[in-house]
Design goal:
Largest sheet: none
Radius of gyration: 17 Å
Order of helices and strands: HHHH
Number of strands: 0
Number of helices: 4
Shape: elongated
Strand content: under 5%
Structural class: mainly alpha
Distance between the termini: 36 Å
Helix content: 40-55%
């Protein structure tokens, strides 16, 4: 392959292979603003036909998400 080579993944940095972390490759970590992500997810979920999300306010949705401990990159590191 010709340089530069790109590798895109949703795998958290802590879960990357040791060989990749010890190499001289550059790692670019891109993340979104947490509140923007929450609002985007709320808009998406509010349009689902699933009854458990219909009528939830943004505050209720935020409380639901904050109670989940298995979401996000920190879950992979624990």
């Amino acid at each position: 392959m010709s340089s530069p080579r790109l590798f895109s993944t949703h795998v958290p940095y802590a879960s990357l292979p040791k060989s990749m972390k010890e190499s001289k490759c550059r790692v670019v970590y891109v993340c979104r603003n947490a509140f923007g992500t929450l609002v985007s997810l709320w808009h998406f979920a509010s349009h689902l036909s699933d009854i458990r999300f219909s009528g939830w306010t943004l505050e209720e949705w935020g409380n639901f998400v904050m109670e989940r401990k298995d979401l996000g990159p920190s879950a992979a590191m624990s």
